[in-house]
Design a protein that fits this description.
This protein is α/β, with parallel strands linked by helices. It is built from 15 helices and 23 strands. It has helices spanning 23-38, 56-69, 82-92, 127-140, 157-167, 187-195, 233-242, 269-286, 302-309, 321-331, 354-366, 372-378, 395-405, 407-412, 456-470; strands at residues 13-16, 45-50, 73-79, 95-99, 108-115, 119-120, 151-153, 177-181, 207-211, 246-250, 257-260, 266-267, 292-296, 313-317, 335-337, 343-345, 351-352, 383-384, 388-391, 416-419, 423-427, 434-440, 446-453. Strands 1, 2, 3, 4, 5, 6 and 7 form a seven-stranded mixed beta sheet that branches. Strands 18, 19, 20, 21, 22 and 23 form a six-stranded antiparallel beta sheet that branches. The two termini are 37 Å apart.
């Protein structure tokens, strides 16, 4: 019996090509996807896009064949970013599939799938059914529908770029010099289309300095994962050398964006969340509407404080885009942000788009006389550790050691403990203000630590102290 459990994850498909994911598998998944995501809603059309990996065109074509075999028409939009696929799904109300492994190494590929309107296909939202049917089709063959679907190609890049420009206007502001590191990923195609003139749209007056715009799924320069600080070094050096106003780094499928200021310093994604959230909040207030902004558990406390001080409503969610997308829709939130630099917009079908977040930052910077470091300082009143991983033999035992270390303060009420997506220990209501969260990895024996404090010395003291307890008796524990 076929078993796809190794490659069907919480909210996507991902595996090594061809050992775990090959064209036969992609064809079965395409047929199952058509049955689960398109047919139940009466849909007769799905969109399929893919990234720059060598295996992507063949896998996408096989997936399209499987969907067509089940009677669904397919529009192949070709090379695109993940948010470019979401644009087609959202604007046309059709299901969609994007072939990408995002920031994973070259030997990987995968599929991000969505229902019509860019609603995610994940666990509890159709992915189990897709897996079950695909396994059945691999074992028994794909039954042909009475009418075979048709497959056609369409270029949607200019429409995508124009839609983003309609949401954030970048004309009429001071000129900016922008260094963009595409990491040989899909931003090498989309950045020039959205921010430049390569899709035939008017010039926005931005001076773009491209880095690694050549589409190359082997990632010859560095991994397309800006969450790793090592992958930002080239961009930071270039921003300083070019005397640029800002640097932008995208991941492989260009749905995440990291921001570098004019000094070559990375802007905390929480600061970007606060900046963009306040801009969207002000837009809602000007229209006479109340606004909700979603933030995940380990974003800075500055985010809810600033949103609520401005008259908005801040709602916290668990870490992970499936959770934040679901809560975005439930709350009808105008915007949502994660520490991992995923940014979600109500006006983009509650989906994430790194390019739209970047445009908000560019618009805020271009409309101000301040430098980006001065601007981001407003949204960064506290100090944070970033996420620190510790490999431990028994994560639960390590967490209990931390509980024991703070037992007296917990018992006296000095430190509050909350079990929500891991465990959060908080001393935020009195000086010295600090909090930290410890979460276990779902797939590895890791504990993930995030610390925030109002003072740099307190940050170091809490971080070092907690890590010492977590790593007690462990070997080779740095991640």
């Amino acid at each position: 019996m076929s078993d796809l459990s190794a490659i069907v994850k919480a909210y996507d498909v991902r595996g090594v090509v061809p050992d775990e994911l090959d064209e036969e598998c992609a064809q079965a998944l395409g047929a199952a996807f058509a049955d689960v995501a398109a047919a139940p809603d009466g849909g007769t059309l799905v969109a399929v896009g893919y990234d720059m990996r060598d295996s992507s065109p063949g896998l996408a074509a096989a997936f399209a064949e499987g969907a067509a075999w089940r009677g669904v028409d397919v529009v192949m939009i070709g090379l695109c970013s993940t948010d470019g696929l979401y644009y087609v799904s959202g604007s046309r109300g059709i299901a969609g599939a994007m072939f990408t492994a995002s920031h994973n190494p070259a030997q990987y590929n995968g599929i991000k799938m969505c229902h019509p309107g860019a609603r995610p296909v994940g666990r509890g939202a159709g992915l189990e059914q897709v897996q079950h049917l695909a396994e059945q089709y691999l074992d028994e063959g794909i039954p042909a529908a009475e009418r075979q679907g048709e497959i056609r190609t369409e270029d949607t890049l200019a429409d995508y770029a124009q839609h983003l420009r309609s949401l954030v206007g970048l004309d009429g502001q001071r000129p900016l010099k922008v260094v963009i590191d595409a990491g040989n990923g899909m931003a090498g195609l989309t950045a020039g289309a959205v921010l430049g003139t390569e899709a035939g749209l008017p010039d926005l007056g931005l001076e773009i300095v491209p880095m690694y715009f050549e589409l190359d799924g082997t990632f010859p320069n560095h991994e397309a994962n800006p969450l790793d600080p090592d992958n930002l070094i080239d961009l930071q050096t270039a921003v300083i050398g070019e005397q640029a106003d800002i640097g932008l780094a995208f991941d492989g499928d260009a749905d995440r964006c990291f921001v570098i200021d004019e000094r070559g310093v990375a802007v905390n994604p929480s600061a970007v969340t606060a900046l963009v959230g306040l801009r969207e909040l002000e837009k809602e207030k000007a229209a006479g509407r109340e606004a909700t902004v979603i933030h995940n558990l380990i974003t800075s406390r500055a985010v809810p404080e600033l949103i609520e001080a401005a008259g908005g409503r801040a709602v916290r969610t668990r870490v992970g885009h499936s959770f934040i997308k679901a809560q975005m829709a439930e709350e009808q939130a105008v915007f949502g942000g994660e520490h991992s630099a995923h940014y979600y917009f109500r006006d983009f079908w509650f989906a994430d788009t790194g390019m739209l977040a970047a445009m908000h930052v560019l618009q805020a910077l271009g409309s101000s006389s301040a430098t980006l470091s001065e601007l981001s300082e407003i949204y960064t009143p506290y100090y944070s550790s970033g996420e620190i991983n510790s490999r431990v033999s028994d994560p639960e035992a390590a967490l209990q050691r931390v509980r024991d270390a703070f037992a007296d303060d917990i018992a006296s009420g000095v430190v509050a403990v909350e079990e929500f997506d891991g465990v959060t220990f908080s001393h935020w209501d009195a000086a010295p203000r600090w909090w930290f969260n410890l979460r276990s990895s779902n797939t590895e024996p890791l504990l993930r630590l995030n610390v925030e404090a109002h003072d740099e010395d307190i940050l170091a003291k809490i971080t070092d102290g907690v890590l010492a307890v977590v790593r007690e008796g462990q070997e080779d524990d740095d991640e």
